[in-house]
Design brief:
It is a single chain. The protein is an alpha+beta fold. It has a single domain, classed as DD-peptidase/beta-lactamase superfamily (Beta-lactamase, 3-Layer(aba) Sandwich), CATH 3.40.710.10. It is built from 9 helices and 8 strands. The strands form 2 sheets. Strands 1-3-2-8-7-6 form a 6-stranded antiparallel β-sheet, sandwiched between helices. A hairpin with a 4-residue loop joins strand 2 and strand 3 (85-89). Helix 3 packs parallel to helix 5 and helix 3 packs antiparallel against helix 8 (198-209). It is globular and about 45 Å long. Residues 1-40 have low confidence and may be disordered.
């Protein structure tokens, strides 16, 4: 199993404006960058292999172009296992998790049951299926209580998700996440190791591949044919405005072996946040799997209502 966190990338010359994927920043930026400032930021994309450094540079330019001029704040993390390509844009910045944290809740549950030397019960299986495939909040709350705050915190530590923090009031939808830690979670789900069994990993990835059609937007946009996608999204307006829209995705099979995380905040609408995520996703898929037929076009379903994922009460 590789290290708990992806390799630290070269530091940005912009004094923390771009954070290396997996790096532990001394201090995260507290102000939302202006559009002008973001336009000058450069994503960090590197490859351990000299054969793929040109690809990494090209991918960095394409991610930059995808983010240029967008309203709000965005964090991006990409990891291509086969080529050793790693990218990060503000990968250490914290965001309210919304429903994206449900993937971590399930991973913590699977870790818990493995420690108890048992399989999921029929009830746990039903709750997990609803939580991931339909983003059901009651199911998430039930499993959150089953795992427990202390055990969830221990799972984060064991997984190497050291910058993910819990809401003091215990609201799982306000767990604070980073793009770097979400990549770490996806690596835990897609790599052999001692934290989660192969069966547990296959179970969770299988549910992430069965997400209902109306929730398949985000990092799946531009997925090439022949690649199997696994996705979990979150969409949350705080106090009726200022959307947080996130998407984490793992892409495996003959078409690729890579991970994409895009977190956004301050977008004027849910659809706008989805659009930002999908601009980045198409750039990544297009560079890592060029010349292939696109299997998923992306976008919200026609007529979809802009309503919260319900991960946090409206008054919170």
């Amino acid at each position: 199993m590789p290290g708990l966190l992806p390799r630290t990338l070269a530091a940005s010359a912009a004094a923390g404006a771009v954070l290396a994927l997996g790096a532990v920043p001394a201090a995260l930026p507290t102000a939302v960058p202006t559009a002008a400032a973001r336009a000058s930021d450069r994503p960090v994309c590197t490859s351990a292999s000299s054969a793929h450094r040109a690809l990494a540079r090209r991918l960095g330019r394409r991610i930059t172009a995808a983010l240029k001029g967008r309203t709000g704040t965005e964090s991006v993390a990409v990891y291509d296992r086969r080529r050793g390509v790693r990218c990060g844009v503000l990968a250490g910045r914290h965001y309210d998790s919304a429903s994206v944290v449900k993937a971590t809740i399930l991973a913590a549950l699977l870790w818990k049951t493995a420690g108890e030397h048992r399989a999921l019960t029929a009830s746990e299986d039903a709750l997990a299926t609803r939580m991931i495939t339909r983003s059901d909040n009651r199911a998430a709350s039930a499993l959150w209580r089953s795992v427990g705050r202390a055990r969830f915190a221990r799972f984060l530590k064991r997984a190497g998700m050291t910058h993910t923090t819990l809401d003091p009031a215990g609201r799982w939808g306000l767990t604070r996440i980073t793009a770097a830690d979400e990549i770490t979670l996806l690596r835990r789900l897609t790599e052999h190791g001692t934290l989660l069994t192969g069966r547990a990993r296959a179970y969770e990835l299988g549910l992430m591949h069965r997400v209902i059609a109306s929730q398949r937007w985000g990092t799946t946009a531009g997925t090439p044919a022949g690649t199997t996608w696994h996705v979990k999204n979150g969409w949350l307006p705080r106090h009726g405005k200022d959307w947080r829209v996130h998407s984490i995705g793992a892409f495996t099979g003959r078409g690729g072996d890579y991970l994409i995380v895009v977190l956004t905040q301050g977008t004027p609408t849910m659809a706008y946040g989805v659009g930002t995520i999908e601009r980045v996703a198409r750039a990544v898929h297009g560079d890592l799997a060029p010349g292939t037929r696109v299997a998923i076009r992306g976008g919200l379903p026609r007529g979809a209502a802009e309503t919260s994922d319900g991960s946090v009460p409206p008054q919170a």
